[in-house]
Design brief:
The protein has 134 residues and is mainly alpha-helical. The chain has one domain. Helices cover 81% and strands 0% of the residues. Helix 2 (9-33) packs antiparallel against helix 4 (47-70) and helix 4 (47-70) runs antiparallel to helix 5. The N and C termini lie far apart (33 Å). 31% of the residues are buried.
């Protein structure tokens, strides 16, 4: 009985580790693309940076979850995870259009631009996840 329950453990570990790697890659790339230093701002107790980055991470993870659920293999999952990363970067640039000084305002600790960026990222991630049904 227990062995049957654990039969899926290797697949779980592969997909979980793949997702963790995708998250690390996302955080690395996304924080290099944005002009402000999210992790330093978070270390300096700037809630705006934490809100923007945390919600963008959720916006990335939602499509990764969908990719795991709908992928035929790990490579397929990684491809769709990279597409999710690209979507989040595009969203960052689109969101900057109505708020051109977005990064500076987040770095200054303003919450409204951070919430705008974060929720836009989350919305795009939800749409992205929904579109990954194939």
């Amino acid at each position: 009985m227990i062995l049957q329950s654990l039969a899926g453990l290797p697949a779980f570990l592969v997909y979980f580790c793949t997702a963790l790697i995708a998250v690390v890659v996302y955080l690395f790339v996304y924080t290099r693309v944005t002009p402000h230093d999210e992790f330093q701002l978070i270390r300096d107790n700037h809630p705006a940076a934490a809100i923007a980055l945390g919600l963008s991470l959720l916006g990335f993870v939602l499509p990764v979850v969908s990719a795991i659920a709908h992928s035929s293999n790990v490579i397929d999952c990684l491809i769709w995870s990279m597409i999710a990363l690209i979507v989040q970067i595009i969203v960052f640039y689109i969101v900057k259009v109505p708020v051109p000084n977005l990064s500076a305002r987040i770095a200054d600790g303003e919450l409204a631009p951070a919430i705008w960026l974060g929720l836009s990222s989350l919305a795009a991630g939800a749409l992205n996840a929904a579109c990954m049904i194939y």
